[in-house]
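Our consortium's second objective concerns turning raw sequence data into structural hypotheses that experimental partners can test. To show how far this objective has progressed, the report includes one record in full. It was chosen at random from the queue rather than selected for favorable results. The single chain below, 228 residues long, was entered without modification.
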Amino acid sequence: MAGILLEVQRLKERCRIVLASSSPRRHEILSLLGVPFEVVTPKFAEDLDKSKYTPPEYAMANARIKCAEVVMKLAHPRYPQPEYDDKVLIVIGADTVVVRGDTILEKPEDAAHALAMLKQLQGREHQVITGMAVSVGGSEEPVAIFEETSVSFAQLTDEELKGYIETGEPFDKAGAYGIQALGSLLVTGIRGNYQNVVGLPLAPLSRLIAAELARHLKGAAQECLVTH
């Protein structure tokens, strides 16, 4: 985290930061950096074949695709933004999944699906994995990492689970719960990064941004020396 604290002023002055996500929870967490950013929502359907990936690979693959899609969108002539010509483009993509055993749980399709998911999680420990991808300088090959946190649920009755589902909270959340709101009442404990369960662990993400920005600026400086 210290690396990005030293970079905050440079991010404000020299970088254009774009979050490739419509999630209000990710918006809120990223805003904690105190650096202005834009939101461009990717249209990726998140329809990768889960059987071909481990859960971390799946989350990172989704994050890379979202990130790369937005990079390409911003490069299209339909999106001319000359005021950013002198700034380094940083695009951030993310994808969060809940994992029980080897099963990846994403957002529920309906109330019955949400109930089935929550019944898998109750009284047990599960993992939450967020894949994060960063593109610096318009690269269409984002670099990705992941963070994993373990979450324990209380033993709950069907009546309690249905009551939670009736609030409507589960329907836009991986694993059918949100730890930052009413879903916290289902949780008995976590091991790891809390922000990761919400959807964007800022500390590992900030380290990745700092490392990729430094690599990009070093490469740009070397290229300038060669051409001059």
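The partners drew two points from this record. Residues 223-228 have pLDDT under 50 and may be disordered. The two ends are 35 Å apart (CA to CA). Both points have been shared with the crystallography group to help prioritize constructs.
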